[in-house]
Structures are given as C-alpha cells and as structure tokens.
Amino acid sequence: MLAIARTTATKVSVDVKNTGKTLLLGVLCVVVAAAQCVAQEVPTSSDELDRVTMTASTSSDLLTTRTGRIVDYTGRLLKLQVPTGSVEEFPAARVRSISFTRSALHREALAELSAGNIESAIDRLRQARRDESRAFVIREITADMVRGHLELEQWDRAGEEFRVLLASDPETIFAPLTPVAWKGASLTAPQEAAATQWSQSRDALVRVMGASWLLATKQRAQAIEQLASLSSDADPRVAALAWQQRWRTQVVTAKPEDVTRWKQQLIGMPREVQGVGWYVVGEGLARVGESEQAAIAYLRAALEHREHAALAADALLAAGKQLDKLGRLEQAKSLWKELVTDFPATAAAREGQSRLDATKPPPK
After folding, report:
1. What total of structural domains would you count in the chain?
2. Staple partner for 319: which of 8, 265, 295, 360, CB 3.0–4.6 Å?
3. Which domain does 22 fall in, by range?
4. SUPFAM superfamilies under this entry (predicted)?
5. Which one, of 200, 197, 154, lies nearest residue 179 by Cα?
6. Closest Cα partner for 186 from 210, 217, 221, 224?
C-alpha cells in the first residue's frame, strides 16, 4: 500500500511495510511543476486519513464520506488514494468539503488571518507555502494569500497571487476570490501598470481582472470595450464577471427596470462568481431608492461569499447604511458589530466602528 506525495527530496523513498528497510531510488518523479515526490504508505488510522465529503452522485444531494490520502484537488477532479493503494477520481462538482492535516505554520497563519493580523499572516503563509509539498495545499495557501492582500487593498499583489493559482489550475475552485473590482478605487501607478499587463493576458479570466480595475483610470473606454467582448466568452465565469463589470459602469444612470434585469441575469450565472454581482445590484437598488432590497442584495454578497473578506466587509457596511436609512438602526448596528468582529483589518471595519461610536450616548 503505497501513496505518492510531493516532497523536496531529490530521490524517491519507498517505505516497504514489515521489512524495516528503505529503498532509495535515484530517480526524479515529476508530479506538479517539476517537483519531486516520495512514495509513502497510506496511513490506516482514521485520525491520520484525509476526509472528503461529497454527494453520492452528480444528480444527488445525499452526502457520503470517503477517507484516504488526497493526491490532488482541482476545479475538475479530486484524486483520493484509498487505504488499499488505488487512486479514485471524483468530479470536483460533487465535493462539498475536505479535511486534511495542515502544517503548524499553516495553522498559525490562518489564526493570524482570522485575528486580522494580515501582514503577519501573509508572511507565515509565504513560508508555509515554501515548506509545503502537496499541490492542492499549496493552492489553498496561495488563495489565503489572495484573501489577505485583498483585505489590505493590495489589488496588484492579490492579482499576481491569483495568476499563480490559475497557472496551477485553470479551473480553480477559488474562483470566488477572483480579484476583480467591485467599487471605485484610486490606483497607484504600480497597480495601474499591473492591471494594464493583466488586460493583455492570454487568460480571459486575467483579462477581466485587468479591465475591471482599469475602469477607474484613463483607460476606461478601452476597458469597457474589452469587457463587452469578454461578456460573450465561452467560459461562463469570465462572461459573468464581465457582465457584472459592465453593470458597474451603468449604476449612476440605472433605472429600476435595469436593476431588475441585472438581478434576473445574475441568478442564472455560476454561483461561485455571483458575489461582486450582488454587490453591484445592491449599488443599483440603493441608487434608485430601494433601500430594503439593496440591503438584501448586499447581504447576499456578504453571507454567500464570506471567503472574500474584503468584499464581504464592504457589503456588510453598505447593508447597514441602507438599514440605517430605513430607521432600523439596531439592525444596522448588529451588522456593523459583525463587520468589526469578523473583518477587523479592513477599511470597512474602521468605518463601521466609527459609525458605532457615533451612536453611543455622550458621557455624562
């Protein structure tokens, strides 16, 4: 019972059960990105096994759990080596969750990320990625780095890390983190240069990223033209994100029927890339005076896409503002408190705290 896992070793080590001997084979094993790998015995203890929860079939909602060692997990397939040694493949669409052992450094980084210590988290994630050998875990760490850079409003760094994800897995399961713009932003010169470079990429998803940020620059006209072309892309994720960016350019002139059409169109888009769309629909509804419906749209962006912390934070702040307009201050305060607690490193959290402070009675 042998499992293949990546390592930085220059040889393949085969642990032969019951012999107490290790055979060192002087060969290189290219698994992912020319990395080496080591053959290991699949653990038999349930505490050591990876766990995958998935639907029983692509047409069923019934959940089942499989254990073994995850060989890889991409946007297309999950490969699981079971204790008998064979490798089974499952469509990624069936996977609902995975459980596996992370390194101590990786766990520390996630704790820092949750605590809002983003720069420290990114440093630890970078080191954890260097030390990690499993391809699917490297991708998860990279996605966490994207999250961190987005929270710090480092759009260019988030985009570069996302390009690393796409290079490893073009059908990435981390599409919800695609670093497209969801609000107006003032770009630095390096950020605009990065966006310009992305807009010229061969990868359509990267081109959407670039065009979305260039809407805030002197290249706006070219970006709008590029988004119009991308909105008919064969990749439904690309087409959806391009449409959502086109809506952003129309918010200031939108009529109620326009926003209704956006909402209907959004519901038919791939769910994993709906987050920015719900935020834009919220902006449109707020613009036409539909505060309650705007709050609901913002909350959909926040609740269904919490892994995109920067977007979720802005959405919670905006939803609270709409509720405040309706005279429902206590509900607004509840959202702002959640914002400050869950996303403390964001600019939205700072504004949320300021709004909470403004509601406190003056000291006697």
Report:
1. 4
2. 295
3. 1-41
4. TPR-like
5. 154
6. 217
